[in-house]
Design goal:
alpha/beta; 39% helix; TIM Barrel; 269 residues; eight-stranded parallel β-sheet
Length: 269
Amino acid sequence: MSTANIPPFGLGTFRLKDQHAFDAVYNGIELGYRHIDTAQAYHNEADVGRAIKASKVSANELFVTTKIWTDRFAEGKLIPSLKESLQKLQLERVNLTLIHWPSPNNETPAAIYLEQLLQAKKEGLTELIGISNFTIKHTQEAINIIGANEIATNQIEAHPFLQNRKLIHFLREQGIHITAYMPLAVGKVLHEPVIQQIAEAHQATPAQIALAWSLQQGFAVIPSSTKRDNLQSNLLAANIKLTDEEVKAIAELDRGDRVANPGFAPEWD
């Protein structure tokens, strides 16, 4: 499977817990989502696994991503932690495993966790491997360790208010696919007049326009929602084609407005 096979439209599960996580994934699969994104740090892998098991769709038809948390990077820890994730997900393997964040302050050298991740792939625990929240510097280091061909994607925050151009330009040069998380900036973009005007012109919702913009950039997107109607509505973004003028107008909304910026985050580009 090449990176081109990462389904462009996915379902994010960040901040979804217990029954909310189960319902979102179960409803999402029923509505046609085939790409499900979770992580060890979300504490919902078991709920996601239950929803996959309860759905009428075979796990083989789904593309499931999980992410390794930073306290499982040490030598000998990463692979057992991934096996634990697989048990919770009730899967023999996942399609994609990401390093969730670069090791804070480089406490664990990148070679230690990236080589274990590559080993997990060789052992058949994951089909593809990749990175998340990696800057240009961290991505370059990862390329030096495992090679750009092994990095299926860099999952980063990207939306009309944070267009991350420098990093995205670098990733494209390296042939590394981009997965955009928080594509609606936790709802902030829905109140932007420019997006609302474009939505009106397309008889669409502001969310559909923001998602269509991401898809048109060639990103995979993983919006989340607890509401079935929104899950269904978001999928229609794939049918919208923005004009060059509209894309240009959205390009001007970039203001470096970052939502996910925890204290351990790297120094951003």
